[in-house]
């Protein structure tokens, strides 16, 4: 093989790998943004992938028009259209994440999918163009293409690992956007260097790319300014809107509003509050565990979020050990900065595990619990079926001690309530939670009184009954146990029979049918 | 094989591949978790499989004597066969291997998806090799095949969201994809048989492109247009 041919091959493989790296890195960024904008709606992920693939397909087709029959393999002139495609692909891809943010005030996440398609179209043109540049049309064309394809895949895998694991864990989204934008300019510069046939041409291209780089650095901060605020507040975004906290890790984005409301991946994830008196996060449900189980010695909690629930559960009378399995380590950073909940990190009876909840349960068949608690996220979010299906409920059942309770948030899904009431012989709705068990289950008034009376955090009682207001609140809370006998209301208790009668039209949730996630393909949440 | 038919079957192949990808990822995430490590492991396993498959397909494609359409039919049938039983295989293997270390879990995931992704990855170079012999234009061949295949995947992604997953679930969606693979395989095989029965056109033997067409390419299509016999610049 001649030097010129070797250089052509090396350049072809490098461009295929580098473009794969940049394209997949951008895709990771776009997934994060659309997840935040849509609250993790599975349909949004599917449509993002569809837009991306439509774009790739069209870009590939269009690039064929630039592949002249008479072109010579390795001819630097062939790189010229490639230089243009790489540059504009990178510019368009860099703008996609901001386009989601800046259009959120006026429209939902579907319109910016056009930007995804355009970017992908430009990115999709690179592979055919580079193949046409470097592969001769002979019997070995298929084999040589396989090397290009492999290089592209290796680059993509590297993008997945480096951007997904390293960049996402260390840098905010704006910095990643800048790094990817600069990488794209660098790739363009390499191609431009090979394509220019004269010193003047090289100088012109160098000047143009220098200006592009300056423009990138000058505008990046502005383009990515308060991107998550724009995506969450949408039409309610104002010039002074700003989160109190943003924690970005490879596992996701956690944001906290100025009023202490936590959003995980853009979806409501609770508020900092452990007080039943100023109950602004439905914390009564956590206290309710004390009314349903005589002595919940060992408790498993799947999901940490703001730590408010875990703090209450860890202080319930009788709790000796609380295992918390959280998938996103960012929540540990979050609670470390909040006095009301940071005690969890040093509480000797609390064990923190970073893992997928279902996998952890599967991998610990020897563990048994008196209560398994999940303040589950919205029933329609991507992959939530893994925690709401018949299969998961059977798994939870297998990890419960005799008399154990599985207590979890259905976020008012009738499908999930019916599933729970069908899988377990004893079931009760507590607000939008289901409490289920293989043993008789009651919201016991005596235990409820004892919980309200004995519960203390830092020596402070739940309700100060020394005042008339406190006494009145105590009586109201105590009366909650009687709602099981009244006509069911959304915030009260409801018996299994009534749940089954009410949810006849609902479907049983299985791993296979994923009912909650697909019952309504598109949902658009109101901004806070 | 008429080009249009080739494009249609490759579009269907891309449609099926994306349905599998969606369903298999869901199934594997349920087994191994949806934490970033597991997700990356599964996605990387998919990519590595496709990349290795590409190498294998490329190696097979370079010999013009090999019956490309027959190989393509075999590959599609293989994907369909695996796809039909795939979710059961994942479930059983998942139960056995759940307690393994992350590295071992990654290796098992890789092996699980290796067979089908190897086959999927092989189809593009195989067909590019086939088409370049006709068109003599690498860029256009790659562009068109990549276009139809990716277009099929794009349609599948939208269809999965809008209909398949909600109405057919994971098993039903995988079965549809499997049926598509078998249909593609059958069409490719029938075309291969038909090409065996057809007399080779004189132009293919005595034309100006001996390197591309002189071998006994039993399944190769007669020149579909003028480009197939055009002189190629060196």
Walk me through the structure:
The complex is a heterodimer of chains A (528) and B (234). Chain A is 52% helix and 13% strand. With 528 residues, chain A is of the alpha/beta class. Chain A folds into two domains: 229 residues, Up-down Bundle (Growth Hormone, Chain: A), CATH 1.20.1250; 237 residues, Rossmann fold (3-Layer(aba) Sandwich). In chain A, strands 7-6-5-8-9-11-10-14 form an eight-stranded mixed sheet, with helices on both faces. In chain A, a hairpin with a 2-residue loop joins strand 1 and strand 2. In chain A, helix 1 runs antiparallel to helix 7, helix 2 runs parallel beside helix 4 and helix 3 runs antiparallel to helix 4. The longest helix of chain A is centred in the N-terminal third of the chain and has 36 residues. Chain A is elongated. Chain B is an all-alpha fold and 234 residues long. Chain B has a single domain, classed as Growth Hormone, Chain: A (Up-down Bundle), CATH 1.20.1250. Chain B contains seven helices and no strands. In chain B, helix 1 crosses helix 5, helix 3 packs across helix 5 and helix 4 packs across helix 5. Chain B is globular. At the A-B interface, helix 2, helix 5, helix 6 and helix 14 of A face helix 1, helix 2, helix 4 and helix 5 of B.
CATH topology of chain B: Growth Hormone, Chain: A
Count all strands of chain A and give the number: 14
Assembly state of the chains shown: heterodimer
Percent helix range of chain B: over 70%
CATH architecture of chain B: Up-down Bundle
Total helical segments of chain A: 21
Largest sheet of chain B: none
Q: Compute the number of strand runs of chain B.
A: 0
**Quick one: CATH superfamily of the largest domain in chain A?**
Vaccinia Virus protein VP39
Strand content of chain A: 5-15%
Q: What CATH architecture of the largest domain in chain A do you see?
A: 3-Layer(aba) Sandwich
Instruction: Give the overall shape of chain A, derived from the CA principal axes.
Output: elongated
- According to CATH, the homologous superfamily of chain B is MFS general substrate transporter like domains
Order of helices and strands of chain B: HHHHHHH
Number of self-contained structural domains of chain B: 1
């Amino acid at each position: 093989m001649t030097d010129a041919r070797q250089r052509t091959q090396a350049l072809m493989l490098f461009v295929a790998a580098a473009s794969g790296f940049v394209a997949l890195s951008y895709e990771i960024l776009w997934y994060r943004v659309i997840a935040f904008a849509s609250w993790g709606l599975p349909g949004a992920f599917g449509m993002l992938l569809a837009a991306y693939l439509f774009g790739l397909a069209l870009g590939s087709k269009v690039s064929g028009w630039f592949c002249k029959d008479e072109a010579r393999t390795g001819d630097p002139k062939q790189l010229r259209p490639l230089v243009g495609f790489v540059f504009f692909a990178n510019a368009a891809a860099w703008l996609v994440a901001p386009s989601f943010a800046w259009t959120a005030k006026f429209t939902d996440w579907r319109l910016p999918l056009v930007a995804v398609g355009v970017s992908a179209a430009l990115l999709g043109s690179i592979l055919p163009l580079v193949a046409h540049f470097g592969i001769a049309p002979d019997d070995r064309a298929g084999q040589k293409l396989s090397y290009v394809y492999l290089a592209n895949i290796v680059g993509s895998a590297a993008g997945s690992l480096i951007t997904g694991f390293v960049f996402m864990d260390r840098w905010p989204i704006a910095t990643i956007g800048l790094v990817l934008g600069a990488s794209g300019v660098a790739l363009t510069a390499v191609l431009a260097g090979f394509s220019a046939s004269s010193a003047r041409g090289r100088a012109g291209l160098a000047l143009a790319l220098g200006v592009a780089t300056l423009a990138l650095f000058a505008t990046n901060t502005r383009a990515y300014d308060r991107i998550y605020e724009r995506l969450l507040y949408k039409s309610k975004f104002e010039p002074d809107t700003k989160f109190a906290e943003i924690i970005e890790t490879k596992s996701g984005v956690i944001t906290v509003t100025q009023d202490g409301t936590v959003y995980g991946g853009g979806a409501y994830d609770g508020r900092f509050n452990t007080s039943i008196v100023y109950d602004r996060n439905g914390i009564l449900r956590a206290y309710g565990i004390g009314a349903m189980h005589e002595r919940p010695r060992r408790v498993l909690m799947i999901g940490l979020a703001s730590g408010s629930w875990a703090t209450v559960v860890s202080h319930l009378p009788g709790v000796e050990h609380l295992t918390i399995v959280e998938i996103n380590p960012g929540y540990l950073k979050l609670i470390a900065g909040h006095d009301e909940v940071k005690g969890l990190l040093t509480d000797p009876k609390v064990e923190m595990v970073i893992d997928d909840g279902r996998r952890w349960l599967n991998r610990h068949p020897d563990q048994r619990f008196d209560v398994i608690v999940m303040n589950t996220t919205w029933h329609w979010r991507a992959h939530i079926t893994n925690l709401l299906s018949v299969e998961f409920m059977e798994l939870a059942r297998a990890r419960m001690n005799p008399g154990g309770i599985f207590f979890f948030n259905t976020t008012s899904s009738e499908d999930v309530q019916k599933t729970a009431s069908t899988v377990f012989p004893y079931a009760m709705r507590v607000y939008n939670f289901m409490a289920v068990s293989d043993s008789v289950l009651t919201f016991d008034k005596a235990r409820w009184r004892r919980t309200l009376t004995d519960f203390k955090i830092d020596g402070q009682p739940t309700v100060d009954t020394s005042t008339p207001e406190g006494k009145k609140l105590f009586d109201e809370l105590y009366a909650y146990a009687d709602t099981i006998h009244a006509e069911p209301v959304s915030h009260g208790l409801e018996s299994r029979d009534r749940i089954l009668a009410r949810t006849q039209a609902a479907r049983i949730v299985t791993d296979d049918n994923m009912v909650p996630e697909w019952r309504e393909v598109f949902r658009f949440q109101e901004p806070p | 094989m008429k080009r249009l038919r080739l494009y249609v079957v490759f579009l269907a192949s891309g449609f099926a591949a994306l349905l599998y990808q969606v369903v298999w990822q869901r199934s594997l995430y349920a087994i191994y978790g949806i934490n970033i490590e597991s997700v990356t492991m599964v996605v990387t396993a998919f990519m590595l499989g496709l990349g290795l498959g590409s190498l294998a397909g490329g190696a097979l494609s370079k010999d013009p004597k090999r019956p490309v359409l027959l190989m393509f039919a075999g590959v599609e049938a293989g994907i369909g066969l695996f796809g039909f039983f795939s979710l059961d295989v994942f479930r059983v293997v998942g139960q056995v291997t759940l307690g393994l270390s992350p590295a071992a879990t990654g290796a098992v995931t890789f092996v699980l998806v290796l067979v089908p992704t190897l086959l999927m990855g092989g189809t593009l170079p195989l067909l590019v090799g086939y088409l370049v012999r006709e068109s003599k234009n690498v860029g256009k061949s790659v562009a068109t095949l990549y276009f139809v295949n990716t277009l099929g995947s794009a349609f599948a992604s939208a269809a999965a969201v809008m209909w398949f997953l909600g109405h057919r679930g994971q098993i039903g969606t995988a079965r549809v994809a499997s049926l598509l693979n078998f249909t593609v395989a059958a069409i490719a095989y029938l075309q291969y048989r038909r090409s065996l029965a057809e007399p080779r056109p004189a132009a293919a033997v005595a034309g100006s492109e001996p390197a591309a067409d002189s071998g006994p390419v039993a399944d190769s299509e007669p020149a579909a247009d003028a480009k197939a016999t055009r002189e190629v610049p060196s």
